[in-house]
Amino acid sequence: xxxxxKETQATMTPQKSLQFLKExxxxxxxxxxxxxxxxxxxxxxxxxxxxxxxILSCIDSRVSAELxxxxxxxxxxxxxxxxxxxxxxxxxxxxxxxxxxGTKLIVVLGHTSCGAVKGACDDAKMGNLTGMLSxxxxxxxxxxxxxxxxxxxxxxxxxxxxxxxxNVSLAIENIRKQSPILKEMEDKNEIDIVGxxxxxxxxxxxxxx
Length: 209
Ligand SMILES: [Zn+2]
What we know:
- About 45% of the residues lie in helices and about 15% in strands.
- By secondary structure, it is α/β, with parallel strands linked by helices.
- Zinc ion binds near residues 60, 111 and 116.
């Protein structure tokens, strides 16, 4: 598989980009890899990059977007922050990636058993982590069940994963609300913005409908 070029990027649509990622994740789940020579891709991309998707994911060591979607050099912009939430800098990165660098798809990728989400569920406090986790708190509040406070913590993995899903949906809402540029691109069908969850037990990415 060759690195993307200006020509191949121009043939990409939001739908085709999503299809490429779905196929890549299927290869990953089946322990197959597209035949690519990374060193050759270093050379092929030295004059420029033409990626087709922008993926916001967690820093979790098990959730590398390039690996779980079986992508090579020059294929995706990878934005990573613990708990995959949105802030001004991340929106700026996404606006660059879509408006200036031509990617056709934004994926907000949450994952199961997320440590950052667990920290927010437990109201963990430590140094700069306190402020960071406060960005995930709206997702904790967004999950209304169970009501019993004793079940609303990191010991309840079902609760944790439900918070992670809401956290993805809120991130997408925030992209649309806080970035008129990306909202307009989506409205004109120049890009799609989709949510997904990565299952750390199976390697599968489940895209939200
Ligand atoms: Zn995480």
